[in-house]
Each structure stands twice: as structure tokens, then as C-alpha cells.
Specification:
alpha/beta; Rossmann fold; 7-stranded parallel beta sheet; 8 helices; 7 strands
Length: 254
Amino acid sequence: MSVFIDLSDKKAIVTGASRGIGAAIARALHAAGASVLLNHPGLDSTRIETEAIAAELNEIRADSASVVAADVSSAAAVAAMFEKIRLDSGPIDILVNNAAILRDRTVSKMTLDEWNDVIDINLSGVFYCSKFGLEAMNDGGSIVNLASVSGLGGFFGQANYAAAKAGVVALTRVLARESAKRSIRVNAVAPGVVETAMAATIPEASRAEMLKSIPLKRFANPNEIASIVLFLCSDLASYIDGETIVASGGWSGW
């Protein structure tokens, strides 16, 4: 029996799609046939990176990828982005809330800006994109939120990040309950450490300690997380709703 994922009639938006996990997710959804909207926060650097990915995907399949700018920490910017998408290209079928930042510091040293910046993007951004994304989504769609094992384990020095990602897990459950009447499924993926530019900021000593707790003895690559998101967006996951899938290599670090 052959099993394959066909999203050729679907339109997806991925937030924070300029690099890392977001870029891998956009490529995976596109490879399965979806047309993809790649969100970035509007910085010159992220615009250039995201436009390059869109050009790459359009070389593979014409008019199948485009770029949309919005800072997800701004409710007004997110509302405007989804209204523009709705007017320009019609409703979406898939929303992947991936955009996130790190501002690690112990609670005693963490500034209020470091707390607020992470909460605003990593948690409020998921809420804003889900709220306004649902208004622009077809019934029977799918939302996948990127959580983290930090939100389950409460890692040292990550009060802001862990709190935000724990909130994403809880928000995922609530959204799943509220969206079920429209047959829209909402799930989350909680990765461990993934080899991205963000993870590269973790001190080498801390990385070595983390590896000791991972039975597979390595960190994930972005494509491995993207594959889980692709599965959750597909009909293969048609009876999975309100769940958080942990992808940590068997990490026992919490």
C-alpha cells in the first residue's frame, strides 16, 4: 500500500518563514503540493531571506509561493495581513504559527523588555494569528503551533520562553475545542533543540549538557520537525486534535 500526502488544493501560511524551522515547514508543505504564503516580520534581512525562498519555490512550481510581511506581536499588523490575504487570494486552509524569539536570562537579571518581547511574539503572536487566521480559514482547515519542550520542563534561564511555550500548549487545547464545530483541527509540536540559528546562540557547555539527556545523542534538524507539521496538516492526522507532539529525541531533561 502506498501512502502519500497531497495538499495540492490547499493554501498555507507559515509565520517566521525566513529561516530555520519555518523555512523547512514552508518547503515541506510546498513539496506536498500546497501553495505557500511565507510570513516575515518586515525587516530588510528577513524580507530578503523570505523572498529568496519564495523564488526558489516558484522555480519549482510557478505562482505557488508569495511573501507577506507582518510583525506577529502587533494585533493590528496581523489583522491587516489576513485581511489582505483574504482579499487578494482568498481563504487559507493551513496556518502554522512558528515565529519565535529567544531572550534567555535568569528571572533576577531579566529585563521587563526581555520578558515582554518574548511573550508578545511567542504567545500573543500565536493568539493574534489564530484569531484573525480563523476568520480567513476554510472549514476543515488545520492549525499547527510550534511549542517547545521548554514549555513542558521549565528550563533554567528561560522564564519568558518557557512561560510563552507553555501558554501555546494550553492555547492549542482551547482552540481545538472551540474550532471543532468547523472541523478545524488545532495541534502543536514541541521540539527539543533543533539545529537552527536560534539554537546556535546556546552556549556550548549547555549544549553538551543537553546532549547527555538525549538518548539519540543528537539534536534535531529542521526537516524532522517540518515532517511532523506536514503530517498534522494532512488527512493522515484527521483524528488528531488538541494534541502536542513532543519531538525531542527521547530527551529526559525535565
